[in-house]
Amino acid sequence: MDLGIAGKVALVTAASSGLGRAMAVALAAEGVHVAVTGRNEERLEATVRACTEHGVRATGLVWDLAEHERAEEVARRVADELGPVDILVNNTGGPPPTPVQGQDPQLWQDQYGSMVLPVVRLTDAVVGGMRERGWGRVITSTSSGPITPIPNLGLSNTLRASLHAWSKTLSSEIAADGVTANVIVPGRIATPRVESLDRAQAEREGLSVEEASARNRAGIPAGRYGSPDEYGAVAAFLAGRQAAYVTGSVVRVDGGQIPSV
């Protein structure tokens, strides 16, 4: 299927590894020029190389999302190097596993500044241009926690839920201008983040990592963890011309894991 987005420009945040990298490479495979951000320059350059292997232009910008005040600068740099952003993929790292009770207010504030504010500010920096051009995609990658809260991920469940409400509200404000806003939700995808969560669960429950992983796979109807490539493919579809009438949605990529309707 030709998604009709070759030649467009995408910006994917937190793309030095895991889901961010998978989404960036999936877009590059469709002929999209890609800018990626991340904190680790070496891993970021590896993502850039993986994108350019598809014959597109790509660039990497070192950016810690906690420095959310740099969002407008990042958007300008991408426009200078590749052109105005047509496809924005908001991806952020996750907070440490914790219960929701008894957390230091500063931790809440810091994580809000890393997970929510950079998404809002970066979108504000590019969505006006999308509306003026009459085409654009805002895709925000979150977690299954806002749908079915995940035990011991209190901060993540709460903060990512705010992004669901934000994206839905945004979608109604920009739809008439040809710009869509959707959320994409991973189940357990085989990434370093999920490996770390399995490790934390194993320590908490007195299991081996292998036992914790097996227990988690048993709760997934598909019987396995998803691959990052599968997740990236769904993000690429949401960016495509065929998804022009999909907006304000939350799309699950979870192998049937999330138990709610």
* Shape verdict: globular
Mean pLDDT: 96
Specify the structural class.
Answer: alpha/beta
Low-confidence stretches: none
How widely separated are the two ends? Answer: 29 Å
Number of strands: 7
Major sheet: arrangement of strands: 3-2-1-4-5-6-7
Instruction: Tell me the number of helical segments per DSSP (H or I, 4 or more residues long).
Output: 9
Residue fraction in strands? 5-15%
Largest sheet composition? 7 strands, parallel
The helix-strand sequence is: EHEHEHEHHEHEHHHE
Helical percentage: 40-55%
Summarize the structure.
This protein has 261 residues and is α/β, with parallel strands linked by helices. The protein has helices spanning 18-29, 41-52, 71-81, 105-115, 117-133, 154-174, 192-205, 209-218, 228-239, and strands spanning 9-12, 33-38, 58-62, 87-90, 136-141, 179-186, 250-253.
